[in-house]
């Protein structure tokens, strides 16, 4: 079914701790996964799995199978054995299985990582060749940057223009969703917006990644296959059989007078958050023993979120992607009940979500991290498409929901250099 390359991965400790964002300066094309200065930067492709539109929705199972077969046949030399060392892949998936964007896993040729205690360099290539003979220019540049940091800065892509927004059309969509809610059968529907952006020159992903990581250090900043963003929501992190999930739903834009107690006291936001937590608990309890933590307020530079941490122990071994696939889409990005909400999204929303709101992350042979792709844009040359959404309930106010999406757009618009992003 698959073409499985026979790979060798070798991880070597680095004597100094790299500043990951500075490593981005040399490779023109790079992948990244960073939070609070920790994570890794990667370049090159040692192997790649692409999965197109899929009416049977087998994408998570098949991608997990590909990864399992690849790791089973690989030679891995890893004296550190820490999360993110050894053989790793990064990936992103489309929100809908039938979306033309499809889904992708990429095994990089070079990975430079730092977890706060240890730093490492991993080289990955065919088992029957010298890995240095197979490296792309970007992969070689990343190796050089890890050993000799470069002072080179990112080129500017110039001014960015945002297409006009039809606010009235958004209000109409909210009204249509609420008609469905009031008619029964669906309780919450997440309605997303998209913005089309055009730059003067090709957009340099490194510029966007660095700005996101600097402005939103408590989020996971990611760059995978043209998808760049900084998400606060953890879909599934696993290590062996242990799982961690963070559910975010219920949002207040962070203005000068924003009060966390106002968010905690809001019946609409409390109901929205409860439905999101219940959707994760319902699916995760089928495969694991779970423990739900107390709900708290997560404060970010642009918004306040109601947040709940969930911990679980799997009943059996599974890849991180299998766990993430079982949970996607949660009620935080789809709605409740799931199928009815997805029907409403397909009929009312009127946009292609592409890889927004879907799993994005990485795996090694012991576990990994998959987040929900939020505060993100898909970059293609001089063009970018960004998305933001919010949960519509029966008592939602359209103008408040619109303001929430504007606040959620702010991180990626600011990173792209849109002048009026706030």
From TrEMBL:
<dbReference type="Pfam" id="PF00425">
    <property type="entry name" value="Chorismate_bind"/>
</dbReference>
<dbReference type="GO" id="GO:0008909">
    <property type="term" value="F:isochorismate synthase activity"/>
</dbReference>
<protein>
    <recommendedName>
        <fullName>isochorismate synthase</fullName>
        <ecNumber>5.4.4.2</ecNumber>
    </recommendedName>
</protein>
<dbReference type="InterPro" id="IPR015890">
    <property type="entry name" value="Chorismate_C"/>
</dbReference>
<keyword id="KW-0413">Isomerase</keyword>
<dbReference type="InterPro" id="IPR004561">
    <property type="entry name" value="IsoChor_synthase"/>
</dbReference>
<feature type="domain" description="Chorismate-utilising enzyme C-terminal">
    <location>
        <begin position="168"/>
        <end position="408"/>
    </location>
</feature>
<comment type="similarity">
    <text>Belongs to the isochorismate synthase family.</text>
</comment>
<dbReference type="InterPro" id="IPR005801">
    <property type="entry name" value="ADC_synthase"/>
</dbReference>
């Amino acid at each position: 079914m698959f073409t499985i390359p026979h790979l060798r991965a070798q991880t070597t400790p680095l004597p100094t701790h790299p500043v990951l964002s500075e490593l981005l300066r040399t490779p023109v094309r790079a992948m990244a996964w960073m939070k609070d200065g920790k994570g890794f930067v990667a370049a090159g492709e040692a192997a790649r799995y692409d999965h197109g539109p899929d009416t049977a929705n087998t994408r998570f199972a098949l991608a997990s199978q590909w990864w399992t077969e690849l790791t089973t046949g690989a030679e891995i030399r890893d004296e550190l054995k820490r999360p993110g060392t050894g053989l790793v892949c990064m990936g992103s998936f489309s929100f809908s299985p039938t979306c033309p964007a499809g889904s992708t896993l990429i095994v990089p040729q070079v990975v430079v990582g730092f977890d706060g205690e240890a730093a490492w360099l991993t080289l990955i290539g065919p088992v029957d060749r010298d890995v240095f003979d197979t490296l792309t220019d970007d992969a070689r540049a990343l190796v050089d940057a890890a050993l000799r940091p470069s002072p080179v800065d990112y080129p500017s892509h110039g001014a960015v223009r945002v297409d006009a927004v039809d606010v009235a059309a958004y209000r109409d969509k909210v009204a249509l969703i609420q008609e469905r809610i009031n008619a029964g059968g669906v309780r919450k529907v997440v309605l997303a917006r998209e913005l089309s952006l055009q730059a003067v020159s090709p957009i340099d992903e490194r510029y966007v990644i660095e700005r996101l990581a600097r402005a939103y250090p408590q989020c996971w900043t990611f760059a995978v296959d043209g998808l760049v963003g900084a998400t606060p929501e953890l879909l599934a992190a696993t290590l062996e059989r242990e799982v961690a999930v963070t559910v975010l739903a219920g949002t207040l834009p962070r203005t000068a007078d924003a009060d966390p107690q106002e968010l905690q006291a809001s019946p609409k936001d409390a109901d929205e958050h409860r439905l999101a937590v219940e959707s994760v608990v319902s699916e995760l309890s089928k495969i694991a023993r779970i423990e739900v933590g107390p709900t708290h307020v997560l404060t970010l530079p642009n918004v306040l979120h109601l947040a709940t941490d969930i911990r679980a122990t799997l009943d059996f071994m599974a890849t991180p992607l299998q766990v993430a696939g079982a949970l996607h889409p949660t009620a935080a990005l789809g709605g409740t009940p799931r199928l009815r909400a997805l029907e409403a999204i397909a009929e009312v929303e009127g946009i292609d979500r592409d890889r927004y709101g879907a799993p994005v992350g990485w795996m090694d042979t012991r576990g990994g991290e998959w987040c929900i792709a939020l505060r993100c844009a898909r970059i293609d040359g001089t063009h970018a498409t960004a998305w933001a959404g919010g949960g519509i309930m029966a008592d939602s106010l359209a103008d408040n929901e619109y303001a929430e999406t504007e606040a959620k757009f702010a991180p990626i618009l600011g990173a792209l250099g849109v002048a009026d992003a706030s």
